[in-house]
Amino acid sequence: MALDHSALLSLLDALRCSGSADLVRSPAEHLLQELIEAEATAQISAGPGERAETRTAWRNGHRPKTLSTRRLHVVGITEFPDGAWSAQRTREFAMAMGERLERMRFLIRDRGGQFTDPFDAVFESCGPRVLKSPPQAPRANAICERMIGTLRRELLDKTLILHEQHARRV
């Protein structure tokens, strides 16, 4: 049975809202582990612990992989973000997320001027603890910096953005 794109999206949203993501995690981890093992076996021409004359490299054991995810939410675009703008977008985001926001454990943010006390207060009232990265230490927030770099390379380097409305659509 094949699902069209909208049916698949609604199914994924229903799974996400129901809190049954852990039901999907275990089979997904198993499937990804099998795919990684099959690719390694094909590349090296030897299975785990197998000794073969035709292999092209050494295979020094088995390391199970774990599945972990992070989410990025883009809440708005503006040319000059300030504290009031960020706090308002945060309130809108908190209302849209509802009780899913309560399941978040923490929010890592940098020390930008647009992140004011009202911004922090919205998150702390909903559950997640706000963690500030050390001053002038981009490596401390490496996951976010890597995501921003990926978005710039994969999206913006290949797209000519004409104006703000175009940026919102992209």
Highlighted features:
mainly alpha, two-stranded parallel sheet, 48% helix, extended, 170 residues
The value of Rg in angstroms is 22 Å
Measured between the Cα atoms of the first and last residue, the distance is: 32 Å
Strand content: under 5%
The count of β-strands is 2
Average of pLDDT: 76
Sequence of secondary-structure elements: HHHEHEHH
Structural class: mainly alpha
Structure description:
The chain has 170 residues and is mainly alpha-helical. Among the domains are: 78-132, no CATH class; 138-170. It contains six helices and two strands. Strands 1-2 form a two-stranded parallel sheet. β1 (106-109), α4 (117-126) and β2 (129-132) form a beta-alpha-beta unit. α3 packs parallel to α4. The longest helix has 24 residues, at 21-44. The radius of gyration is 22 Å and the shape is extended. The two termini are 32 Å apart.
Quick rundown:
With 170 residues, this protein is mostly helical. The protein has helices at residues 5-18, 21-44, 83-97, 117-126, 142-154, 164-169; strands at residues 106-109, 129-132.
Protein topology:
Elements: H1 5-18, H2 21-44, H3 83-97, E1 106-109, H4 117-126, E2 129-132, H5 142-154, H6 164-169
Parallel strand pairs: 1-2
Helix pairs in contact: 3-4
